[in-house]
Every structure is written in C-alpha cells, then in structure tokens.
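Translate sequence into structure tokens.
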Amino acid sequence: MEVEIEPSNFHHEIWEQARTLLGQLCLHPDGADIAAQLNALNDKIIKANRENGFPEDKLSLFTIDVGTFSRTFASAAPYRERLQKSHADEGHPGENDLTIYEFVAAGQFGKGFGKSYTESPDSTMLRLGAAEDLENKKLSDMAIAGVASVRRLPENEPKGGWCNEAKTIVLVGFGEDPLDFKWYARTVLGQQFGQKVVGEEIDGYRSDAGQERPPKAIPRKQRALTSCKTLTVDEEISGIDNVGETLNGMEEMMKKMKDLVHAVARMTSQTTRR
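Result follows.
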C-alpha cells in the first residue's frame, strides 16, 4: 500500500528555527558551530521521524542538507563581497581627508542580481533623500561629504556622445557642524538650490578630493545635430562584454543560493511517497 508522508507541525517548527541559522551560515559558510547547530536540528528531525513510524530508508526526510547549503554559500561569497565593495556607501580615501565614491548599478552584476542581493540576510540599501527633506534648508548651510557618479567607460559611449551628465548622487548634511548626512540625487538638489550652483559645489568637492570627473555631456545646442541618446543607469554600464560569462555565472549562483535559502518554505509543502 502506498503511504503518504507529509511534514508535520514539528517539521515546520524545526525549519523555522533553521531560518536564522541558515542566515548565519550564509555569512559564515565555514562556521563549524553553526553547522553543528543545524545538524543538531537534523538529529531531532530523524528522532521524530523514527517515533512517528517513518521507514528506515525515509528517516532523513525533511532534514537540512547542511553540506549543500555551506558549499553554495561559500561559492557565492566572492560575488556578494564584490557587490558590497561596490556599494556607494563604501568609498576610498581621497585627498584632503575626503572620501571618493563611485555609483555602481546592480545591473552590472547580472540581470536580476539586485533582487537576489536585497533578499539576502546582510543586504544594505542606499536610501535617497526626497525633495521635501530639503524644505527650509539653505545652500549656505550645505556641506558635501561625498559625490558618487555612475561609472562611464569609453566603450559604452553612444554614437554622438553622452546626451546627459552622468547620474550622480551627493552625500550632504546641513548646519555649521552637521552630524546627519544623507544621499540626494544631484537633480533633486538642483531643483531646490539651482542646477548650476549645485554643479559648481559638486565640482569643487571633486577637485578638493582629487576625484576624477565623469566625461561631460555634449552641449545642449549640439544635441539636435548628433545621434546621441539618453541612457538609463543600467544601459550606461551594460556594454562591458569581457565579463559577460562571469556575470552570467554569478547570476546563476546567486539564484541557486536564493532558492536554497527559500527551501524552508518549499520543504514544508512537499509530499513524498513510497
């Protein structure tokens, strides 16, 4: 007779406990203590399976494949680190004790990678300030602590040149000795204080920090005479062909990692027959 074996509430509870441990394992794939705790949960599952009359060859049903999780997390770690290092909040020292930043869109790491990253347990998000946050603020009180522009490579330049300035965000605070800084899109600051004067402030910071300025857009009067087009952030950096295979592999690895992390939900809905 065919016997249907389904996960019980006990299995659901164990996998709920495993969620936190799997998140820790994701950050520390070689964590022996974490793996030991997960295997201890497996021992409980096997014991419960035996007590509930599971056949001997089915005692490992609904256990956590710790080895597969560890290997997959370890394989994905370099890509996660690469993304984190490219995050705009992590700059490198410039001149005059200032910091140089670069704005790298998630699209550079492969299609869908941004979504996979935001669903990871240690993801960080860049929150941009809104126009209403600048109400009652004065340009004379604004202090710039960083400027990050989209990376523009010569091989990505459209025919006819760049139609628009590189997408740029600016880390600013307000007051005589500001402690609270927030990233704003350059256009948002420009709408509040004037695009020209904001551009001058940005260029002043770049000059003081020794930060290279992105290639300028062609003059507005010449745009009608060229075949240039406006590009999105992802389009600006999508022409890097020599890393295509790496990005595709990374996307596949991150998808696999995400699928494994979400195995908790899947496992609790599976039915096994013998």
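Note: The mean pLDDT is 75.
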